[in-house]
Amino acid sequence: MPEKKQQKQALSRDLIVDTAFRMIDEKGYRAFTMRALGTELGVSAMAFYAHFTSREEMLAAVCSRLMESLDTDPVPGERWDDTLRRTMPSLRKGFLDHPNIAEISLDDSVAWLGLAKHTEKIVNLHLAQGMPEDIFRKAWAMVDAFLTGFTGNEVAMIRGDALVGEDADVLPKWQQIVRSAYTDESFSNGIEIIIEGVKSIAAPDPCKWYTPSEEDVDSADFDGGGKEVDG
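Above: the chain sequence. Below: its structure as tokens.
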């Protein structure tokens, strides 16, 4: 006789988020329900509202959990372009490793709340490097459009089981090209195009922006970010 699931530890925000993350990751976002989560944890669906004000808040916390696992922390001394080369692949990997969790970011009712902390973190990282706000706004648009489009299409192919397979040769040539376009090399090339684009719109600024170290912050030779002040 199968054993009933029992709550083995006190219900908490972390336990709820961890369990919901696992369930969505395994079974899909659309299949997830608060009732199923309650059954998994051995509590009623109403028990969650002692920890979250709404289902949307809980799902946003699941989305945030994924974003917190990515390699987006500041690295002292790192140049802004190397920051993009590090953080953008980490974002792509996170979405490809967890496409069902990534789908939460496409739900308008929870996306902004779930991505808010991550977005604030990335904005502050580049501003602290000394990138001028007007340049950063343009850079953000390029990065956001590229990441959203590239990873969104990859996730869609994964979810639709449409990646190139053994039958790829029987597809029309245009489909072969489109389906094979999303590679590590293509993604890296896209990052380099963005970097060159930022340099172009920032000219004649030499773009010597980087994450300051503690020594830089204490030095009068810097303007509060990583950008050097001409003396």
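The CA atoms of residues 105 and 111 lie 4 Å apart.
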